[in-house]
Amino acid sequence: MSRAPVLAILAALAGVLPAEPARAQDGAMRIQISGPGRSAYRIAVASAPGDAEFGATSTDVVSFDLRATGLFQVLDPRSFLDPAGDSMGIRVDEWRVVGAQGVLKLRATRNGQDARLEYRLFELARPERAALDSAVTGDAKSIRRLAHQVAAAVYRHYMGEDAFFLSRIAFSRRERRGRGDVWTADWDGHRQTRLTRHGSINILPAWAPSGSMLAFTSLLWSNPDLFVVSAAGGRPRRVSRQQGLNTGAAFSPDGRSVAVTLSRDGDSEIYLINLEGKILKRLTHSPAIDVSPSFSPDGSQIAFVSSRGGSPQVWIMSSSGANQRRLTFQGNYNQTPRFSPRADASLLAFTGRDERNHFDVFTLDLKSGETVRITQGRGDNLEPTWAPGGRLIAYGSSRGGIFASTPDGQHEVQLVRGSAETPAWSPWLK
Amino acid sequence: MKRGEPFASGIGVTVLLHAGAAVALVLGHGHAPPPKPAPEVMVARLVRLGKPRLPDHLPRKPAAPPPAPVAVPPTTPETSTAPPVVPKPTEAAPAPTDRPAVKPADLRSAMARARALAARNAPEAGAEEPEGRPEGTPEGTADTASEGDPYATEVWRRIHDGWRVPQTVPSRDLPRLRALVFLRLADDGRIIEHRVVEPSGNRFFDASTIEAVLRVDRLPPPPAARAKAILESGILLEFSGTEAR
Lengths: 430, 245
Prior knowledge:
The structure holds two protein chains of two kinds.
Chain A: H1 3-13, E1 29-33, E2 37-39, E3 41-48, H2 52-68, E4 72-74, H3 92-97, E5 102-111, E6 114-123, E7 132-139, H4 143-159, E8 168-174, E9 180-186, E10 193-194, E11 202-207, E12 213-218, E13 225-230, E14 237-240, E15 246-251, E16 257-262, E17 269-274, E18 279-282, E19 290-295, E20 301-306, E21 313-318, E22 325-326, E23 334-339, E24 347-353, E25 359-365, E26 371-373, E27 381-386, E28 393-397, E29 402-405, E30 412-416, E31 421-425
Parallel strand pairs in A: 3-4, 3-5
Antiparallel strand pairs in A: 5-6, 6-7, 8-9, 8-31, 9-10, 11-12, 12-13, 13-14, 15-16, 16-17, 17-18, 19-20, 20-21, 21-22, 23-24, 24-25, 25-26, 27-28, 28-29, 29-30
Helix pairs in contact in A: 2-4
Chain B: H1 5-28, E1 42-44, H2 104-121, H3 149-161, E2 164-166, E3 178-185, E4 191-198, H4 203-215, H5 224-233, E5 235-240
Antiparallel strand pairs in B: 3-4, 3-5
């Protein structure tokens, strides 16, 4: 036992310590206030002098990342003049005047091939010292990546969870003469890389849980076969070449098996195969069409699409194929279910066709049964895919490209422009 | 009866009461002073929005006190008090074309349930508008507008209207967050001191309560009858994250 508590006890026994003074609030009028409004956290991103081009890019990347989550309102840089623009400090009162709740100061510098991005985050509610004060470094080609890292640090500071800003998105892009290739890009659509180059139709990419590999369907050998390819590129390997369809791959969470649609026996059914293409188990046995499997985060369940009720609807079964039951009853054309990666969310995103023949993205809460519409009135929006962590849902759109929205449908951003469809968001990447 | 008679008798009663109080004061002088009463916290209730009750009406039966802020257990659809989920307009809800056909008996049963619900929720025949004050608020629960309540209502309105919790506070955490903020006022209503005396444990929530206070330029001056108590003891705002808008 340390000395201080002993002395305190002795002093109290001797009556040396005064009794607890009356608190100032005793006798105060008490008013209960509930029902707060919600608002995005207002943050300013300001760049201190350094490498101007690098600084501008960093500001743009960080601002886009934070804004896209729907959690932050990044103040328009035209709305303020950084009162301490030449330093990494802030003048609190002047930032409060423009309505900022937080200020992120960046300083980007380059020295030859080395790039450095310093950052300081201030919360104006307790501005006496920076909440974050650090720097990231890398080569000059990785400027955008450094900015994503800073945005992720800011996000983690506020939300206490990892951000998806270092993840990537795979998609298929229609090329000339009927070709289609699988591409990947940073989650915000930049740094695009073409993975397939063999002049055929390559569609429906799906990431392995490790993020190191993707599966996709290709007509390279005329039949829609299943291939895998390294996320870094290279020569694809054909995994499944059953007669008929080999499509709609979904990796199990442990990465050791793949649920896939095969039509080897005439109609399409869902099977479990290993990475060598060996059939481990047939999961569906119905004369109707069964396609588009998606594993739950814990791997215990598989959502899929079946037309056994007369029209394509979302169904669910255990990963052994047992206990198959229908989940959607509204709409007559529901497809491409995708489980949210949040184990606590029990949410499925899917594409639904409404009574006006518009395709849009919806979510279904498996606990409450509530269906929420995410997109509406902006063309057709299809093939949802979740960001790691479940904060955003991306989808292809007839507007051209890939868009992403918060799961409440309140905030939408465009990620990829031009021809891009069937997006697949990667798992966590480092 | 002449118009002045009630006032005359009232003055008489007042004189007698004051005389009695003076005698009690003289007799009690010289004894040990009575112990200082323990300070009490006044919990102000919000005045319900409505028309003032006419003075010649008999009083209404007091309303039940507001329920304690406890977690609401899941309820069946018939008894749920949660606001209905409002779908997006126009093309929102796809038609349930694949549902099993509804039998006439089911339809009759559903209609009967709907009628029973409607009857239960309908106001009584001849029921009047809720009693309250023009300056009250729909969230108000107080039946009578005592002297302090309208003031508390105005304070509530000014603070509540500008209170926004940032989205960086997760929705799942919000309902259990609660912070106490102490205010001290000048006699003209200016806020001369504010501080969080019981933090919620979430600094963004706490910061939002202070922002809500700072957003209010000043509060109305306390009413004369309670000015001394309010100026001396201040105001405690109990912010709760329940029922976020």
